[in-house]
Amino acid sequence: VPVFPWHSLVPFLAPTQSD
Amino acid sequence: SPPSPVALPPFFMRGSIIQLADGELKRVEDLKTEDFIQSAEISSELKIDSSTVERIDSGQSPNAVVIQFSVGELKAQVCVEVLVEYPFFVFGQGWSSCCPDRTTQLFELSCAKLCVGDVCVSLTLRSLR
Fold first, then answer.
1. Of B9, B11, B71, the CB nearest to A13
2. Which residues lie below 8 Å from residue B30, measured CB to CB, with a gap of 6+?
3. Measured between beta carbons, which residues in chain A are less than 8 angstroms from residue B12?
4. b or e along B93-103 (b: 16 or more beta carbons within 10 Å of the residue's beta carbon)?
5. Cβ contact (<8 Å) for B71 and A15?
6. Contact, B52 vs B119, CB < 8 A?
């Protein structure tokens, strides 16, 4: 059974440099 | 132009086993807000941010949406294009998507309707602060 890390479920929303 | 819709990953399927930062295993449908907060507290690299849904617009394909978030204390504006069934975790509420019926149909994951004003769990790098 595959086990997935918790952080794979959460979107990575980083402000971009161009903002 | 916005990026392509994010393809649907397998771990949103009901029954998927998720490992928290302290090693504890939980099913995806059993995750609570505290699990994300506590896991991020342990992490040296990742930080939980509150990302508020500001707008939800149609995407470039019929089953895609563009969601605009206001991220973190700085309220940085970030847009993501995802399939309508893509679930986000809303603080104090749990899994939510733009089309909860479809999420439930595809993943058997019970879901609320994602709405403008909902505050979602998101991640940033600690070093970006």
1. B71
2. none
3. 9
4. ebbbbbbbebb
5. yes
6. yes
Task: Please compute the mean of the pLDDT values over residues B5-15 and round it to a whole number.
Answer: 80
Please tell me whether residue B126 adopts helix, strand or coil conformation.
Answer: helix
- Split at pLDDT 50, 70, 90, the class of B6 is low
Q: Looking at this predicted complex, what is its ipTM? A: 0.85
Alpha-carbon distance of B73 to B53, in angstroms, equals 14
Q: Which amino acid is it at B33?
A: T
What is the Cα–Cα distance from B19 to B6, expressed in whole angstroms? Answer: 22
Q: Which residues pair with B121 in a beta bridge?
A: B50
Of B50, B41, B53, nearest in space to B74 by CA: B50
Question: Measured between alpha carbons, how far is B51 from B42 in angstroms, rounded to an integer?
Answer: 20
pLDDT for B127: 75
Q: Is A19 near chain B, with CB under 8 Å?
A: yes
Sequence-distant (≥ 6) Cβ neighbours of residue A12 within 8 angstroms: B122, B123, B124
